[in-house]
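R.M. (postdoc): so does anyone remember the format we settled on? I'll just put the structure tokens first.
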């Protein structure tokens, strides 16, 4: 999360919502961890008193969504992989399927007004 920005408007940081995760055993964080933003805490490091890198690195995000709060674009995380493609390379039917599958966990503004696809049809 420390290096991910919206590929369209370049906004940083992105909002992360986790739908499914898996705990990994005995994972040690690398010597060089996040430098500016902690996705685990959803805060900039300057706001954090105690870093929880070991706890963070022990979690594998299986399914989730990344949201750009500036341009209202969203990017699915499917099978551990963030799909951060430009609008023209995305598959509308796959995006609609993802939104419907997780509609109870996705913020309403993304479901209704998210880009490039939403459930309101615009």
């Amino acid at each position: 999360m420390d290096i991910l920005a919206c590929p369209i408007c370049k906004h940083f940081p992105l909002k992360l919502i986790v739908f499914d995760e898996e705990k990994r055993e005995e994972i040690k964080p690398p010597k060089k961890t996040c430098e500016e933003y902690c996705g685990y805490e959803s805060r900039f490091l300057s706001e954090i008193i105690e870093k929880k890198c070991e706890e963070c690195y022990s979690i594998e995000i299986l399914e989730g969504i990344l949201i750009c709060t500036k341009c209202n674009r969203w990017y699915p995380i499917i099978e551990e992989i963030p799909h951060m493609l430009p609008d023209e390379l995305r598959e509308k039917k796959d995006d609609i399927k993802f939104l419907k599958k997780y509609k109870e966990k996705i913020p309403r503004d993304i479901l209704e007004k998210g880009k490039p696809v939403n459930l309101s049809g615009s």
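R.M.: ...and that's the designed sequence above, right after the tokens. Also worth knowing: Residues 92-101 form the longest helix (10 residues). The beta strands are 15-23, 37-38, 43-44, 59-67, 74-78, 81-82.
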